[in-house]
Amino acid sequence: MHDTEPAFDARIAVRPAVLADGRELIYFDDADSSLPPERAIDARTLDPRPANAHMRQDALTGEWVSIAAARQNRVFLPPAHLDPLAPQTAENPSEIPSVYDVAVFENRSPSFGPDLADADASPAETLAELRRVGLERTRTSVGRCEVVCFSPEHEGSFGSLSRSRARTVIEAWAHRTAALSAMPGVEQVFPFENRGREIGVTLPHPHGQIYSYPYVTPRTERLLAAIDDYGPGLMADLLERERDGPRVLVSGEHWTAFVPFAARWPIEIHLLPHRHVPDFAATTLAERDELAGLYLRLLRGVDRLYDTPTPYIAAWHQAPVHEHRDEVRLMLQLTSPRRAADKLKYLAGSEAAMGAWIGDVTPEAAAEALRRAIAEADGLAHETAPTPTEPTPTEPEGRSA
């Protein structure tokens, strides 16, 4: 739900298509793309999509658990020539028929969807019903789950993208947030990237996902409770306090990244926009342009902490679709369990069972290490940048490099 129409970047072409089993596929072409507008048809013969999963409520917490047994059959670490997210070839009947810059498609075995709720259902009544606690309550796991392919390359992550490609992915997040938020029964939209086998990644292909939930997630429900206690300015006040503090990592005209005061993980970074923005669809083109470069700097800094790539979860928290949109601000929460070059933080008794966290590193020490790593990554990028042989033309205002 959006009070104003989202602004989209006309330089980034959006090309809708359909997969052989009826799933939606959307190509997003870089602003400087060399790809032709035509796209191949998906000529595969595919089995029918599995039935919707179902949700069960945990009566002790009120939380909903989606039981999606079809996910047991998903691909696990395939060889490069059978990468399901690479462009199709005669030997590889993958999910994407054409060469692409960025591609988004419906997950074949989703945790939520493909069915949607009744379009006539009242969001307020639906949320109130879902928040009620009872014994052995079940619901259909309506919603939508999408895969966001950052690149046609077999290996990589968001941090390995060019700035132009990073900007295209951010534009895709904005487009899909707007589209998914308008679907019946969707209450929250969540873009994220899992990176590294230690996190449980089953495909090395650079990609993320977008989950569209039929309820407000437990993490956000706890945030709403904190806002109710503190007041509607909680996230704005928190950002202002952090911007003047010792844990800031990078800051621009529109965004600031910092290690939070009560970080749970050995590596934890929060990134917020300076003005109130409930989700990606509400960001301006200038905010997305700056984010492309700033986010790449953060991720490349995280990878400079150690000699090998760092596993992480990059979680983009957005406001619920139908409530608290003036209070909940778009926020990145990037977390990694890596506490040393060869050590991981495992969630054992206190954290996993009781939700009572014990930090292994002070947030201030983590911030200092991250600032050094970001500076090293910035220096490396400067050293490896090509030297122009002639004056560089002036870019239009807001243009990604």
Automatic annotation (TrEMBL):
<keyword id="KW-0808">Transferase</keyword>
<keyword id="KW-0299">Galactose metabolism</keyword>
<keyword id="KW-0548">Nucleotidyltransferase</keyword>
<dbReference type="Pfam" id="PF01087">
    <property type="entry name" value="GalP_UDP_transf"/>
</dbReference>
<dbReference type="InterPro" id="IPR036265">
    <property type="entry name" value="HIT-like_sf"/>
</dbReference>
<feature type="domain" description="Galactose-1-phosphate uridyl transferase N-terminal">
    <location>
        <begin position="54"/>
        <end position="216"/>
    </location>
</feature>
<dbReference type="InterPro" id="IPR019779">
    <property type="entry name" value="GalP_UDPtransf1_His-AS"/>
</dbReference>
<comment type="similarity">
    <text>Belongs to the galactose-1-phosphate uridylyltransferase type 1 family.</text>
</comment>
<comment type="pathway">
    <text>Carbohydrate metabolism; galactose metabolism.</text>
</comment>
<keyword id="KW-0119">Carbohydrate metabolism</keyword>
<dbReference type="InterPro" id="IPR005850">
    <property type="entry name" value="GalP_Utransf_C"/>
</dbReference>
<dbReference type="GO" id="GO:0033499">
    <property type="term" value="P:galactose catabolic process via UDP-galactose, Leloir pathway"/>
</dbReference>
<dbReference type="GO" id="GO:0005737">
    <property type="term" value="C:cytoplasm"/>
</dbReference>
<dbReference type="InterPro" id="IPR001937">
    <property type="entry name" value="GalP_UDPtransf1"/>
</dbReference>
<feature type="active site" description="Tele-UMP-histidine intermediate">
    <location>
        <position position="207"/>
    </location>
</feature>
<dbReference type="Pfam" id="PF02744">
    <property type="entry name" value="GalP_UDP_tr_C"/>
</dbReference>
<dbReference type="GO" id="GO:0008270">
    <property type="term" value="F:zinc ion binding"/>
</dbReference>
<protein>
    <recommendedName>
        <fullName>Galactose-1-phosphate uridylyltransferase</fullName>
        <ecNumber>2.7.7.12</ecNumber>
    </recommendedName>
</protein>
<keyword id="KW-0862">Zinc</keyword>
<feature type="region of interest" description="Disordered">
    <location>
        <begin position="375"/>
        <end position="401"/>
    </location>
</feature>
<feature type="domain" description="Galactose-1-phosphate uridyl transferase C-terminal">
    <location>
        <begin position="234"/>
        <end position="374"/>
    </location>
</feature>
<dbReference type="GO" id="GO:0008108">
    <property type="term" value="F:UDP-glucose:hexose-1-phosphate uridylyltransferase activity"/>
</dbReference>
<keyword id="KW-0479">Metal-binding</keyword>
<dbReference type="InterPro" id="IPR005849">
    <property type="entry name" value="GalP_Utransf_N"/>
</dbReference>
